[in-house]
Design goal:
Elements lengths: L1 E3 L7 H4 L3 H4 L4 E7 L8 H15 L5 E5 L3 H4 L11 H15 L5 E5 L23 E2 L11 H16 L3 E6 L6 H11 L2 H6 L3 E6 L3 E2 L1 E2 L9 H6 L1
Parallel strand pairs: 1-2, 2-3, 3-4, 4-5, 6-7
Antiparallel strand pairs: 8-9
Helix pairs in contact: 3-5
């Protein structure tokens, strides 16, 4: 995660990550524009592109998750982003244009499921020509199925536009290992792929924020128990 807080951005929160630590994994770079969307111009976008190039030049594939959860963070409750849906789309397109010549960077559109109404996300959709991957951030609070959580969004955006579906963030909203185990099983089940055929994978929120989400670090072995 890295925040853009001025018109000059060096991406140091990302570049401090060693390519050796990334290994053969895909690097999901979550870049959060905390300056107004209207200030993300071609100059700022070129700086974002330059930071991504530092990784791709070393052979790393990057999913650029620009302005994730824009439909939440741009609200009075979310508070981190500033601007309208139209201004977000303009900013998104500036960044997409800046990385367009780098075939190892994919633009990853990843809203939040706040409200649970996929139709409300349409105003934040930049268009299929500038989006390479779609995803949505969901933290279930009950034992719902993968299909119940994701199929509506998947069909509206991934299936309709023939885009890969990658879950940018998830975790179970409970510190219970049993709940985490349940959700990991849902995420890795054959039913997940059968209900959402464009589903490619997921990123677990491996942090201690608001609660302890750990499943693979800090002594937790839940992921190993489920995924092997």
């Amino acid at each position: 995660y890295a925040q853009i807080t001025s018109s000059t951005w060096d991406g140091s929160q990302l570049t401090q990550i060693s390519v050796d630590d990334i290994g053969d994994a895909i690097f999901i770079a979550s870049v959060m524009p905390e300056i107004p969307f209207s200030q993300v111009d071609s100059n700022v976008a070129s700086q974002v592109a330059a930071v991504m190039k530092k990784f791709t030049d070393q052979g790393v594939e990057v999913y650029l998750r620009f302005g994730h959860e824009m439909n939440w963070y741009a609200t009075p409750q979310g508070k981190l982003y500033h601007g309208s849906a139209d201004e977000f789309i303009t900013a998104w397109k500036a960044v997409a244009a800046a990385v367009a010549d780098n075939d190892k960077v994919s633009m990853f559109w990843s809203p939040n499921n706040v409200g649970g109404d996929d139709s409300q996300l349409t105003q934040w959709w930049p268009g299929a020509d500038t989006v390479d991957i779609v995803g949505i951030d969901i933290y279930p609070k009950s034992h719902e199925s993968f299909s119940d959580a994701y199929k509506g969004f998947h069909d509206t955006f991934a299936k309709a536009y023939n885009k890969p579906f990658v879950i940018g963030e998830t975790g179970y909203s409970s510190s219970s290992d049993d709940d985490k185990r349940y959700w990991l099983k849902q995420l890795s089940s054959s039913e997940a792929l059968s209900s959402c055929p464009n589903y490619v994978g997921f990123s677990w929120f491996e942090y201690n924020k608001e609660q302890r989400f750990y499943v693979a670090s800090h002594g937790d072995t839940v992921a190993r128990q489920v995924l092997g």
